[in-house]
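Question (not urgent): is this output format expected?
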Amino acid sequence: MLSQPTLVLNRSWQAICTTSVRHAIILVYTGRAKFIAPDTYELHDLESWSDLARFAKGPLIHGVNLALPVPEVVILTETNVYPQPKVVFSRRNIFKRDHYTCQYCGARPRLQELTIDHVLPRSQGGRSTWENCVVSCRGCNEDKGNRTPEEAGLKIHVKPRRPAWLPFVTQNNGLRPSWEKFIGDLYWNVELDQSE
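Got this back:
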C-alpha cells in the first residue's frame, strides 16, 4: 500500500505529479502538505486524517499509535509549482503516443522490431518533431526508405501530433476514480503549444 500512487496538487489545486503513499504521508507529517478528502474537499493534517480511519471503507495503514486511511490526494501548503506545459519529445514518448504500434501497417511487434520513422525524410528536409516522427516496424521503414509515405505507397493510420497528455498520470501508475475531480476533461483537452 505504501508504494501506491497519490496525486499531488499545488496550492492552486492543479495536479502537478504523483508520489507514493509513503512520501505523501511524509509531506503531511512535515507540514509541507495536507490530505484531501476527495468526497468533501476537506483538508486534513495527520491527526484529523487519523480520526477518519474509523469511518474508512478501504484499507488502513497501521502505525504504532494510529491508523490512517490510504491517501489518494494531497495538496502542497508551501510552494506553488506548476505543471510542465509540454510533453518532452523523446523516443519513449513517441512510442507511448503511438501505442507501440506501426503507424503504417498497424502491427505490434516486439519493441526491438520498432523504429522511429521521419514522415518527411531528413534527406528531404524533414525535422525531428512530434508532427514528423512516427513509430514504424522495421519492414515498413525499410520499404519506405528515403521517400514520403505517398511516394512509397504507404498510408499513415493516425496523423502524428504533439500528445495532449501528461506522462505522470497514466493507467500504469494507478489512475484512481477520485482523481477525476481534480483531473477532468478540461485538463486533458487543453491545447498545448505546438511550436518547437
